[in-house]
Design brief:
This protein is of the alpha/beta class and 355 residues long. The strands form four sheets. Strands 3, 4, 5, 8, 9, 16 and 17 form a seven-stranded mixed sheet that branches. It has a six-stranded parallel sheet with strand order 12-11-10-13-14-15, with helices on one face. A two-stranded antiparallel sheet has the order 1-2. InterPro entries: ADH-like_C (IPR013149), ADH-like_N (IPR013154), ADH_Zn_CS (IPR002328), CAD-like (IPR047109), ER (IPR020843), GroES-like_sf (IPR011032), NAD(P)-bd_dom_sf (IPR036291).
């Protein structure tokens, strides 16, 4: 297949920093959309993958799956997009399209496995991995490209392609809405989106944090109430009160403390990814017929629904813009939790500056 060399940022080994390198993108086939990347969010998954912490990484690795860009060309058979459209690409660029989950619009749970935007075998260029959004451009099948609402700030929209759908999908699946009292655990990249989206869905939102310094922030983001999770008395006040809890914490924590907050038939969905297993006491579930679940991103149709929902309610992420040349420092800050609440790379920096 014919390819074009472009500039990108990535690394060649788990202990290597990200640097500028050249990668090959396929030239558009009849169903492809070629996209000039304008902004790319920085997800914690990028860091884990670059450092080979979530299983073996295929090197060279070019991370980035929160992509917003402009269509520069389309294949002859493309019907959903035209040159000049502002579009998004999220965590996947393909799937088998034939299994029951793909047919149900749940491509993220594709039985053979979805094709990740980066660090997956590239079906179109055998022997190569897919390369993500820390790059000048990307070529994606039109069925895995998304329309971006015109009214949203483009840079602040980029994190919706992962953080937005990761929180929207479980909130939507568990029917969060008016007359529902919903807990959001953790006020970070995921949690701050969870608060905004749950509030826009009409729920009464209770934010849980280990830091009193985040009380005002949680209220600003839309929380109706804020609870210091280290305070047993504050936690006890919500025992058995919540219909649903979205847990966005990736550090080790006592999951039973949050299961105790659920009403009968309540559910807790984990979207954070703690490194070690979280012990669950049987009676945390048995008493009250409670459910402990997990959720991963969303399918293409649901991701488009999320973007349209955010467009309707004018929801974007709170971001800090960086140049691509500062990505290694951003990773160091990400490890310390030193970001409010999502880094976004202005990809013009890749074109305008040399290493």
């Amino acid at each position: 297949m014919e390819t074009t060399a472009i500039k990108a940022y990535g690394n060649e080994a788990a202990d290597a920093q990200l640097t500028q390198l050249n990668i090959n993108r396929r030239k558009p086939t009849p169903h492809d959309v070629a996209i000039e990347i304008l902004f790319c969010g920085v997800c914690h998954s990028d860091l884990h993958t670059a450092r080979s912490e979530w299983g073996p990484t295929i090197y060279p690795c070019v991370p980035g799956h929160e992509i917003v860009g402009k269509v520069v060309s389309v294949g002859d058979h493309v019907s959903k997009f035209k040159v000049g459209d502002v579009v998004g690409v999220g965590c996947m660029v393909d799937s088998c399209r034939e299994c029951e989950y793909c047919k149900e619009g749940l491509e993220q749970y594709c039985e053979p496995g979805m094709t990740g935007t980066y660090n997956s075998p590239d079906k179109n260029l055998p022997g190569n991995p897919t390369f993500g959004g820390y790059s000048e451009s990307i070529v994606v099948d039109e069925n895995y490209v998304l329309h971006i609402p015109e009214n949203l700030d483009l840079a602040a929209t980029a994190p919706l392609l992962c953080a937005g759908i990761t929180t929207y999908s479980p909130l939507h699946h568990w029917n969060v809405g008016p007359d529902k009292k919903v807990g959001i655990v953790g006020i970070g990249g995921l949690g701050h989106m969870g608060i905004k989206i749950a509030k826009a869905m009409g729920a009464h939102v209770v934010a849980f944090t280990t830091s009193e310094s985040k009380f005002a922030e949680a209220k600003r983001l839309g929380a109706d109430e804020v609870v210091l999770s280290k305070d047993a008395e504050q936690m006890a006040a919500f025992r058995g009160k919540l219909h649903f809890v979205l847990d966005a914490v990736s550090a080790e924590h006592d999951i039973n403390a949050y299961l105790s907050l659920l009403r009968v038939d309540g559910s807790l969905a984990l979207v954070g990814a703690p490194e070690h297993p979280l012990p669950v006491a049987a009676f945390s579930l048995i008493v009250g017929r409670k459910s402990f679940a997990g959720s991963a991103i969303g399918g293409i149709q649901e991701t488009q629904e999320m973007l349209d929902f955010c467009g309707k309610h004018n929801i974007t992420a709170d971001i800090e813009m960086i140049d691509i040349q500062n990505i290694n420092q951003a990773y160091d800050r990400l490890l310390k939790g030193d970001v409010n609440y999502r880094f976004v790379i202005d990809m013009i920096s890749l074109k305008n500056k040399n290493v």
